[in-house]
3-keto-steroid reductase/17-beta-hydroxysteroid dehydrogenase 7 (Dicentrarchus labrax), 364 residues
Amino acid sequence: CSACRLFPVWTRKMNKVVLVTGANSGIGLALCERLLSQDTEGLQLCLACRNMRRAQAARSALLASHPTAQVALLQMDTSSISSVFAAAQEVKLRYNRLDYLYLNAGIMPNPQFDVKAFFKGLFSSHIITMFATGEGILTQKDCVTADGLQEVFTTNLFGHFLLIRELEPVLCHAGRTSQLIWTSSSNAHRSAFNLEDIQHQRGTQPYSSSKYASDLLSLALNTRYNKQGLYSSVICPGFVMTNLTYGILPSFPAFLWTLLMPVFWLIRVFTNTFTLIPYNGAEALFWLFNQKPESLDPQAKYHSLTSGRGKNYTQPRKMDVDLETSEALYEKLLQLESEVRKKLKEKQKESQQVHSLPAGPGSS
């Protein structure tokens, strides 16, 4: 049939189907490597990435160490509404079910760094919290997307929300379970989030706000979808040295980060949140892959932790969330979704009208 020619045979003979957003580097790529190391044969892995050149490089690296693995690529930019919708349509064409959706893609805008607060923190009892979360030393400037939405909010939260909504047919099936797994942060603070300003247009901590919103949304998703077999969980990767971390101080040379590593290793003796490398940071993501979703606590954030001796483990910690606020956020996201879909239809209609206009005098 034409569908069989369009997509490879492996899309029709599936065991576990896993889609990871932001999979071309950092924690997302480390997760993919760990998943394939556990089960190469029974896994259909899809890397959803914004930059296809980097995605192809990531796929090649995974296949170099796992030659028999089945790894597909999907172009998707969670900051673009049309990109999310197009990617979701592609997923529904390729797969009749999705077992795991890792909502890992995210951005942190280059922040304003408070040098005075940093050096003050170095000689205080809050030094570990400061390094682990950036609390008190970072403020950020957000941008607006082509869709007229705040970029951090859309990339980290709303794009993923729309993706889930679009993928309901392949996520929700009677008689089996599927999992949504969010990469959140210890930087997710209630104080940064405002229900009357969910896009964080008026604040200076868009990253923290978006991550706290993902904690709230996960709780609301469980309320809405558990009866349909879909479960949502949240993880914190700990303090990991990734491109996101390097972006905190864009003018800070990479080799200086390397010089700081011994300090970070020393700090890890006193705190287990300094996972430091992507492989360790992906611990909770990988751990959740092997759990029964019904047994998980919807109000817990699952933390990747590394002991001073380098042992990785996962620990649940209660999130600072409540059902009332989570439901209120969900309703606001539904309202925004409705507005976005309406605008997109209007744009498409205008575009069709422009293309259907008759040619002017003298045109060939």
